[in-house]
From TrEMBL, chains A, B:
GO terms for biological process: nuclear-transcribed mRNA poly(A) tail shortening; priRNA 3'-end processing; siRNA 3'-end processing. It is found in: Cytoplasm; Nucleus. Residues 176-245 form the R3H domain. It catalyses: Exonucleolytic cleavage of poly(A) to 5'-AMP. This is Poly(A)-specific ribonuclease PARN. Belongs to the CAF1 family. It comes from Xiphophorus couchianus (Monterrey platyfish). GO terms for cellular component: cytoplasm; nucleus. Keywords: Cytoplasm, Exonuclease, Hydrolase, Metal-binding, Nuclease, Nucleus, RNA-binding.
Amino acid sequence: MEVTRQNFKDCLSTVYSAIEEADFLAIDGEFSGISDGPNVSALTNGLDTPEERYTKLKKHSMDFLMFQFGLCTFRYDSAKSKYITKPFNFYVFPKPFSRTSPDIKFICQSSSIDFLASQGFDFNKVFGHGIPYLNQDEEAQLREQTEERRNQHANGLGTPSFISPSSSKVPAHVPDEQKDYINKVVEKVERLFNGNGKTLNLDPCTGFQRKLIYQTLSWKFPKGLHVETLETEKKERYIQISKVDEEERKRREQQKLEKEQEELNNAVGFSRVIHAISKSGKLVVGHNMLLDVMHTIHQFYCPLPEVKSDPFSIPVVLLDTKLMASTQPFKELINNTSLAELEKQAKETPFKPPQVETAEGFPSYDTAQEQLHEAGYDAYITGLCFVSMANHLGKTTNFSSTFGRVWALFPFHLLFLMRIIDIPYLNITGPDLQPKRDHVLYVTFPKEWKTSDLYQLFSAFGNIQVSWIDDTSAFVSLSQTDQVQIAMNTSRYAESYKIQTYADYIQGKQQEKEKLGQPAKTWGDDGWVKHHYPSSTASAGFGFSRKRSISPTQGEQGGDDGVSGDGWNHYSFPDSTGSKKIKYDGV
Amino acid sequence: MEVTRQNFKDCLSTVYSAIEEADFLAIDGEFSGISDGPNVSALTNGLDTPEERYTKLKKHSMDFLMFQFGLCTFRYDSAKSKYITKPFNFYVFPKPFSRTSPDIKFICQSSSIDFLASQGFDFNKVFGHGIPYLNQDEEAQLREQTEERRNQHANGLGTPSFISPSSSKVPAHVPDEQKDYINKVVEKVERLFNGNGKTLNLDPCTGFQRKLIYQTLSWKFPKGLHVETLETEKKERYIQISKVDEEERKRREQQKLEKEQEELNNAVGFSRVIHAISKSGKLVVGHNMLLDVMHTIHQFYCPLPEVKSDPFSIPVVLLDTKLMASTQPFKELINNTSLAELEKQAKETPFKPPQVETAEGFPSYDTAQEQLHEAGYDAYITGLCFVSMANHLGKTTNFSSTFGRVWALFPFHLLFLMRIIDIPYLNITGPDLQPKRDHVLYVTFPKEWKTSDLYQLFSAFGNIQVSWIDDTSAFVSLSQTDQVQIAMNTSRYAESYKIQTYADYIQGKQQEKEKLGQPAKTWGDDGWVKHHYPSSTASAGFGFSRKRSISPTQGEQGGDDGVSGDGWNHYSFPDSTGSKKIKYDGV
């Protein structure tokens, strides 16, 4: 179901009940761009820590706009042994609802826009009919402003749109070249005031002229007039002057305030859908969903935590189908985890085609006619992939038993990490995996160096892997850990380049952070950094405590809760030998 | 005539000849936004100097996209005593022409996008079919890259898309989970190599898999194969492997390079139209055209000068109809200089309706059915306004005599400045007017202060005017210059606020600049700053000398050329009493 500003209000109850009755939800977003960072390889270094990757995405991706939000609800009908689906495709746009509301600026990335255009994406629908939204801060701020205006009004202070006693203290200073114009307006108003007419519409004029008119009329006619700026269909502003008694004037002002209040409620718009998803607390699946989740929170809810380690609660249960498909037992069965390929493979042997039926009144998608990159369709097939994989695990289609099996194997809130060699996921609400990387060197060199210079430098060590950080530094992964010491020894007297072990590099960075007041992390014995979070109390919405970080002592004392505990021990990781190549751009 | 990527090549010669034969050109642009600055009043302070305004626009407006460019050519037909017009409406979009070409990011401002959407602007046409473009730097860089690739090729170094000796030095390291997949590919290729077939298309696969395939094949089959990545209609990338002899391989590579070269030429795209306008050296009129001119240079030509005083040459003759309409003798005749209003007034008495005719083959615009904010239409009516005003001055419709009269009264390259109290224009290639402003005070105060606090502080001085700079400072214009000393005296012991004269404030800023290595300007005796530029040598294109600024001594010695001379002395200014109000936002 396609939802725009035009039918949003009418659809809202349908959306609410679909979420209410669903067993799980699938989501997907389309964006105006992916990354405004320097270049992809610097932005997604293969040896980023999840914390670093989070910080990069927050810094370089949040200024894009999520302008299409796909939601597909899945309800298991045990009588039919089928899932009943309700797909929604929301067009979203931050239309300023008044001249004082936030005027959002967002970035477009030509390649992304060009790609979407080539897929037939309808930009006119987004920009012309997108549903507006506000995050919680904006909503609160605007409610406050409206409240304030109302109070001022009650106290007789007036607003720029109304003539009130306070604005008539001084006569307007009218520049010579405007005197004729203003005098003519005053004459017209005098005729209105003394005549039988009730209302006078002036011709459209400039903002400066409108200001002069307001000031002059408020000085000359302190009572008995209601003056208001209106817009023609062509968005030209003009002034309407009405003769009113005091009671009528107040009634009009009250009317206007009520209209404002209603407009404000409308302005919250699409965020209401996100609030409903959030309140449902249900399972939300997505494919490679890290950016979708970050954008959804950032755009419709609240600012993202400054750093990933800030305690943050997610009110729903997140599961990433790309991570699922690249993990045992599925990684053996699926050799391409892109959404389109996964959808094809997950209905072939050994999987069974998922049994689904589109609910009455919803246009049904046909997977034979791919509509990839329409958010509603992508959400739909993400749900299909999840059903296939879940059924395969549970060896049944029954919802409850299937899902029990999924939870046993797949801890939630773990989101697939693109292009990281040895860490498969980011844990959005808890501590992340942090391998020791004792076969990795941190190398700095002159900015003229290219990958081939690094290959040459390390030619004695066989197969190496280079992960560029910036123009003058890179990680170099050796194939054998015991080569590290040899490399360090031979580099001791080098002048043009410098080599550090990964551990030393991390320690150096940590020391820099501590200088800036951020706490150290402690290294565990099992090769992973262990750090503990104070139990995050359950919350009805997204949110994070104001406490930015925790000291090591506090951390050691804090207990693990169900979410941030050792859930990842159940998880089978891809090997961490760092053998995957990641610099494959351009092929 | 609507021009998109689809008909651009076919239209180009029509555009060229229209420019060639024209007596003057009118232009207009539509943008994805206006200002990403803090707020309009801080961005456009009424007492900005032209230099400051330029710097603000450069900083806060150039990241928006000019996505529609309107050009209307006007040729005077003396037989018909009419202008023959050819209007063009170009849709422009920086479509990346390859995966290595610049991936432009641009900002959209919701209010601008919403406004254009409400006017029926076709975003799908822009994003789906916009003509690409490159500025001179990008063009040069890409030509260089293509050249480099060609040279590498000639030297047998190869590119990632071709198997070449250099890439086969080491076998690919294939991660365990990819071994099966790669082995199967190798088997297929072996069958191709030993069989009768010529070509093998692999299924679409991931970039990482493509890299492994390239590496593996280049190791296993160093000769006799041509491997290329192609795209399906759905933009999925797949690998095509062809059996070729050495000659055929080289021919294919050559073919590919030639195709690249042609694509590069196409990528220059719309910039070719700007080059043609630039080369024509003709009169170019625009309405409130400062941003149009800055965007055109920035987007299609070269980076804008860092500061406005950097010598910069404009190859065409610019004339701003909004400045013209707000100057004597027109300011008496026209009370609203917005384009739509000007167009209406400039065909009524005392003006005469401009005699124009749309050239054959061009769809004609009907000014009764306004199509405002379509760039081609706006350019068209801008030209009409110019013709009306020029005819009125010349008291004839004859092109040459009319224009002689225009030049006598209106020096060119002066562009209208929005919302500046006492300086009507910015001189884009020469020195600007800089009034003494000796009735102006610079006031700093606690950030809690509002306009009303300033009115109260200066209540003894009658009518004042406040121009906000930021949260804690503003210019306050007094109505009498002799009040300045009194205000200074009374403020001497104040603690919460501070007052400086405008002259002291400017001097302080100048001293700061000098610390940063920028030269001082000298004050003339006539109340305007005089500073002189070395004669800029005529140039075939836009451009500025690398010399950033000139020392006062050099400046005094430098001669005036025709452009930067005292042309502005002919010009009648609005009074500089600073009496116009500018804080009229929100009315």
